Amino acid sequence: MKHFISANHVMMGSMGLIVLSALSGCQSAPEEKASTEQTEGQNKFLVVEQLTNGKYVIVEEMPTTGPSRAIIKETDANGTVRERVLSEAEMKELADQEYKKMEAGQSELNAEPKSEGMGLAGTILAAAGGALLGNMIANALMNNANVRKHQDMSNRSAYHRSSAGGSNSATSNSQKKSFFGNSASKSTGSSSSFGG
């Protein structure tokens, strides 16, 4: 007995695969959103370093299961680096004060960033506002374009870069490479085989 495959059978099979792909894509989106929301409200361990201009940047950021805390590295007039630890309560107090200034329009987070780094309270609020003050404030901060710009300019940690999608000015301006090492924007007119 011979089996014939008609165009209708092929089309129905292809349509079935497309529908299954679309349905599986719809199901994975809420899971990704839930994981993003979970990391926003997660407690953080920060290492914050003072720059020569007196501003602060985050050099390390990690999620933690314990309370949020930060190590602050400051350089005094003699060039001596001193470290101090901020407890979660101290971080909450600084973040709350900065958020109130932001609501009143008096925070540096309200304006476009002018240079790398921010004041200590702004740095803490931008990095750990959700963990310290709750998800509603985290959402308000994430919906503010100036806050996101300040976060990107003041957070040097690899964790921030990976959770923000790995976007920075160096990679966004460079040309994308294809799997085989060619530039994605180039198109070649000649055909070639895999071997040559």
Measured distance between first and last alpha carbons: 44 Å
Strand content: 5-15%
Low-confidence stretches: 28-39, 166-179, 183-193
Gross geometry = elongated
User: What's the number of helices?
Assistant: 7
Strand order of the largest sheet: 2-1-3-4
Describe, in plain words, how this protein is organized in 3D:
47% of the residues lie in helices and 14% in strands. Helix 2 crosses helix 3 (120-133) and helix 3 (120-133) packs across helix 4 (135-142). A four-stranded mixed beta sheet has the order 2-1-3-4. With 196 residues, it is α+β, with helices and mostly antiparallel strands. It has seven helices and four strands; from the N terminus they run αββββαααααα. The chain is elongated, with a radius of gyration of 24 Å. The two termini are 44 Å apart.
Short description:
The chain is α+β, with helices and mostly antiparallel strands. It contains seven helices and four strands, in the order αββββαααααα. It has helices at residues 7-40, 88-103, 120-133, 135-142, 145-154, 158-163, 169-173, and strands spanning 44-50, 56-63, 69-75, 81-86.
